[in-house]
Write a structure and sequence with these properties.
single chain, alpha/beta, Aspartate Aminotransferase, domain 1, Aspartate Aminotransferase, domain 2, 2 domains, 7-stranded mixed beta sheet, 14 helices, 12 strands, 12% strand
Length: 401
């Protein structure tokens, strides 16, 4: 065996640079489509996963004020104390549960929060139950740290609702955690309280953790709908972690402020890990978050009213589109309609982009059981949505399946 110290410089250049675990991270299907579209003209994006509304002005002003007043240094490792206090106040009221600042960890977006939760716990011999389709982040992070992913498919004919009994039946001797995403990206499904309660209660009884990505928790599209979080469905916080952020609720995606809610013991351990990843989240953006939580929530209601209007129209348009089968999503700003069985949605999406200029995301970006589906985002103007379907419908009518 050659000693690396004795290798010539050219030989070292040929040696593997990156850890083999990086092979668990695929090329994201979302990025593949958007990169392709970037070199084209007259593209309508039904692919974007961020709000198309401007950030509310009081939040922008708070961010600017923080910069002007010199709040540009590090905060405490758990987050800006004022933001932690506001988060504890807000979510204690929302979930009718006493939460303290020690139940929160402020992170660089919800992505870092999920990264911390999954990479701190995934290990060889530990199995994680993940629904399919779901956001593309979870499975690669579990696998790159040696964990095993067990998939529970959801079905389009049921609006991609997860069957809690299927999840419970899948729990085995090696099951360490269950990962939930509600409201769901890509399906827009919102799991009802009875589903969350059944899963959380059985998981606690069996000593299994539940990690919940709840980043779309405020984007609820049915009138009067309340969001059932794992936080207000669990008897205690010892086996649950909830992740959310300001990105979707307040159209603050680029400010990168998220958080995790869990037991004080779990937060204390993950604070140390957080210090070795991003250290702290952006200080001025955390002040913007304080303004968001203290401010008038009318801006959120107004955005939701427009998402609801678009959702209703998109459901109609999907039902009128040849070869697409839809349903009524209840949350987020996505629908995940199916194409005929055995359709290669990636090939179809690429050809449709090239020939019509409409960009959607193929289903295999979100799991292995939905390669004949596409994610359509209605985070775009109604005018653009109408034009996109005016292009898609005749094009799909000409396809042979």
């Amino acid at each position: 065996m050659v000693n690396p110290v004795e290798m010539e410089q050219g030989d070292q250049a040929e040696a593997p640079l990156f850890s083999p675990s990086l092979q668990a991270i695929p090329m994201p299907g979302i990025r593949r489509m958007i990169n392709t579209a970037a070199g084209m003209e007259d593209v309508i994006h039904l692919s974007i996963g961020q709000p198309d509304f401007p950030t509310p002005q009081p939040i922008v002003e708070a961010h600017i004020d923080a910069l002007r007043e010199g709040y540009t240094g590090y905060t405490m490792d758990a987050g800006l104390p004022e933001l932690l206090s506001e988060l504890a106040r807000y979510y204690s009221k929302r979930y009718d549960r006493e939460l303290t600042e020690d139940n929160f960890l402020v992170t660089t977006g919800a992505t870092e929060a999920m990264y911390l939760a999954l990479t701190a716990t995934a290990a060889p011999g530990r199995q994680f139950i993940v629904t399919d389709p779901t956001f593309l982040l979870y499975a690669p992070l579990i696998r790159m740290n040696g964990g095993e992913v067990k998939v529970i498919p959801t079905r389009p004919e049921h609006g991609h609702q997860v069957d809690p009994q299927e999840v419970i039946d899948a729990i085995g001797m090696r099951t360490f955690a269950i990962v939930l995403n509600s409201p769901s990206n890509p399906s827009g499904a919102v799991y009802p309280r009875e589903t969350i309660e059944a899963i959380v209660q059985e998981a606690a009884y069996r000593g299994v953790y539940v990690f919940a990505d709840e980043v779309y928790d405020h984007i609820l599209l049915d009138e009067g709908m309340e969001f059932p979080s794992v936080i207000n469905c669990a008897s205690d916080l010892d086996h649950v972690m909830s992740v959310s952020s300001f990105s979707k609720t307040f159209s603050m995606a680029g400010m990168r402020i998220g958080w995790m809610i869990s037991s004080q013991g779990a937060i204390k351990k993950l604070r140390r890990y957080h210090m070795f990843t991003t250290t702290v989240a952006s200080t001025p953006a955390q002040w913007a978050g304080v303004a968001a939580l203290k401010g008038d929530m009318t801006c959120v209601d107004d955005m939701n009213a427009e998402y609801r209007r678009r959702r209703d129209r998109v459901v109609e348009l999907v039902s009128e589109t040849p070869h697409l089968t839809g349903y009524v999503p209840q949350g987020a700003f996505y629908i995940f309609p199916s194409l005929p069985p055995r359709t290669d949605a990636t090939d179809l999406a690429l050809r449709m982009l090239e020939e019509t200029g409409v960009c959607v995301i193929p289903g295999d970006a979100f799991g292995d059981t939905c390669s004949n589906a596409v994610r359509i985002s209605f985070s775009n103007s109604m005018e653009n949505i109408e034009e996109a379907f005016a292009r898609m419908q005749p094009w799909l009518a000409r396809q042979n399946f």
